[in-house]
Amino acid sequence: MSKIITFTTDFGYKDEYVASVKAAIQSYSTDIMIVDISHEITPFSVLEGAFILASAAPHFKKAVHLAVVDPQVGSQRTPLILKTKFGHFLVGPDNGLLIPATERLGGIAQAFKIIPDRFVAWKISKTFHGRDIFAPASAMLAMGLAPEEIAEPIDEKCLTASPFKVEFSKNSLKCLVANVDRFGSLRLGVSFDDISRNYGKPKQIKLKAGKVEKELSFGEYFSQFGKGELFFYEDSSGYIAISANLESADKILGLSLGEEVELEFLEVE
């Protein structure tokens, strides 16, 4: 198994949380490489955490993906290990956070419930499972331990569903704004490939969200358009996104993370 652990959280960098998790991992082996995907997920946003993880994870040949956006930490929600058909492991809470990434890594081959009593010898903080449960589990997987040693198999049908919540209809779909990047682009929780399979490659769409109703053209790149001109495109991770050249689409449209939008497909090829 690769000794790479990717690390995605809503912890930020103000406090010691990120460093504490890394310390727990490297107490098992200093040979483990930890790659930070992001620690600036909007606090408590499982939706955005799932989107960022799913966008980054496929770029790794093989890794353990540790993700912690865990509003229900300390409750009865299940601590998970998910093994994918491409040989990756994902470690984190059962709240939908891991599911979109597994779909991009070949799907779930096996699902496991972590049993901390099998490997944790210290008192577990009820508010910091990232450090006390998920970090050591990730470290042991990265070092080649079989998941059966620290977890028990569960039925994947019992897992919490993806937070993306896409609804397909005859010539339109509804989905969520899953991320607003630092440039103000609205990245939606549906892949361009899924849209093309269901409707054909879109060339012109109508965006509807609340009082917003706007027709948008497809663009290959930003400078095709004038400053502030809105368009949609396939982003670098394969999702559909809405942007404004050299300005912030979220501010122009008044839309934000988690809002539902409807895309009506006016012209496809």
Which SSEs are present, and which pair or pack?
Layout: E1 4-9, H1 17-26, E2 33-38, H2 46-56, E3 64-68, E4 79-84, E5 89-93, H3 99-103, E6 108-114, H4 129-142, E7 151-154, E8 167-168, E9 172-180, E10 186-191, H5 192-199, E11 202-209, E12 212-217, E13 230-234, E14 239-244, H6 249-253, E15 260-268
Parallel strand pairs: 1-2, 1-3, 3-5
Antiparallel strand pairs: 4-5, 4-6, 6-7, 8-9, 9-10, 9-15, 10-14, 11-12, 11-15, 13-14
Structure overview:
This protein is of the alpha+beta class. The chain has helices spanning 17-26, 46-56, 99-103, 129-142, 192-199, 249-253; strands at residues 4-9, 33-38, 64-68, 79-84, 89-93, 108-114, 151-154, 167-168, 172-180, 186-191, 202-209, 212-217, 230-234, 239-244, 260-268. It has 2 domains: 4-158, S-adenosyl-l-methionine hydroxide adenosyltransferase, N-terminal (Rossmann fold); 167-268, Elongation Factor Tu (Ef-tu), domain 3, CATH 2.40.30.90. It is built from 6 helices and 15 strands. β4 (79-84) and β5 (89-93) form a beta hairpin. α1 packs parallel to α4 (129-142). The termini are far apart. 42% of the residues are buried. The model has no long low-confidence stretch (mean pLDDT 97).
What's the short version?
This protein has helices at 17-26, 46-56, 99-103, 129-142, 192-199, 249-253, and strands at 4-9, 33-38, 64-68, 79-84, 89-93, 108-114, 151-154, 167-168, 172-180, 186-191, 202-209, 212-217, 230-234, 239-244, 260-268. By secondary structure, it is of the alpha+beta class.
